[in-house]
């Protein structure tokens, strides 16, 4: 009889995070833990600020500003999480833990808070008077493969069908694909992944110049209550059979496409009025 050695043991679950994680961390001591240089991104209509627990204004520290704004947005508009694998936070403590677990601990991810002029503004608004409009992240980054992903896009409903999504995404594309001499990272590829059922996300990606590359079937097992293209697998001994399975719609944009037409198109979209 063959004898095999297999000493594998499951990785123990991580220790529970403090409910006030980084709530009281001094701004200058907050570690973004990101593999690439962190920088402020701004256009003439949008400013992307790092999604931390405080906003550095040069004035009095304002604890929990971003976390509280984020919580207010997802609590008021929980439908924003329809296609995001996680569930929206319901308390400040849950928001702090979510930001830490999904956006700070993974060194391949950096989340930005989106700020812009208040809805319906007719006069010029200075950037210091901008209001919170949602969040967006650079995710799935790889220094070795020189690639990144635009992800966790959550624009609050009052800012839908405005300049916000276009400018926020455009700023990230410039950050990811522009040459270092132009202020970017000079990466080779930017990708956009979403649930295959998420039609608005697909349309947004194509509008910004991403090319559809295909569908990865049964890519992710979702949490109970999340909708996927497939129901869970049934059968004796099968785990998580109650969970839907997500097919990933995959699109990409590479540096030569960016330099030969897409960048010009994105800049044109960002220059439009309204």
From TrEMBL:
PANTHER family: FAMILY ACETYLTRANSFERASE, PUTATIVE-RELATED (PTHR43441:SF5), RIBOSOMAL-PROTEIN-SERINE ACETYLTRANSFERASE (PTHR43441). Residues 68-211 form the N-acetyltransferase domain. GO terms for molecular function: protein N-terminal-serine acetyltransferase activity; protein-N-terminal-alanine acetyltransferase activity. Pfam families: Acetyltransf_3. InterPro entries: Acyl_CoA_acyltransferase, GNAT_dom, Ribosomal_N-acetyltransferase. The lineage of its organism: Eukaryota, Fungi, Dikarya, Basidiomycota, Agaricomycotina. This is N-acetyltransferase domain-containing protein.
């Amino acid at each position: 009889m063959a004898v095999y050695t297999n000493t594998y043991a499951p990785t123990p679950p991580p220790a529970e995070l403090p409910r006030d994680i980084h709530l009281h961390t001094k701004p200058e001591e907050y570690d973004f833990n990101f593999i690439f240089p962190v920088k402020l991104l701004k256009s003439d209509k949008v400013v992307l600020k790092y999604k931390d627990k405080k906003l550095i204004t040069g004035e009095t520290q304002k604890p929990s500003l971003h976390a509280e704004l984020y919580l207010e947005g997802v609590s008021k508009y929980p439908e924003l999480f329809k296609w995001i694998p996680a569930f929206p936070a319901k308390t400040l403590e849950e928001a702090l833990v979510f930001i830490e677990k999904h956006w700070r601990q993974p060194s391949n991810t950096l989340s930005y808070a989106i700020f812009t002029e208040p809805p319906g503004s007719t006069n010029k608004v200075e950037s210091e008077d901008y209001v919170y409009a949602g969040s967006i992240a650079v995710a799935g980054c790889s220094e070795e493969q020189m690639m990144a992903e635009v992800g966790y896009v959550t624009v609050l409903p009052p800012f839908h069908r405005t300049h916000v999504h276009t400018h926020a995404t455009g700023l990230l594309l410039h950050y990811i694909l522009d040459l270092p001499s132009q202020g970017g990272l000079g990466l080779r590829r930017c990708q956009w992944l979403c649930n295959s059922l998420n039609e608005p996300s697909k349309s947004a990606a194509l509008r910004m110049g991403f090319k559809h590359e295909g569908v990865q079937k049964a890519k992710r097992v979702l949490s109970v209550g999340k909708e996927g293209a497939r129901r869970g697998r049934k059968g004796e001994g099968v785990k998580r059979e109650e969970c839907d399975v997500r097919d990933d719609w995959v699109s990409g944009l590479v540096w030569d496409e960016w330099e030969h037409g897409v960048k010009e198109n994105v800049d044109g979209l960002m220059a439009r009025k309204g």
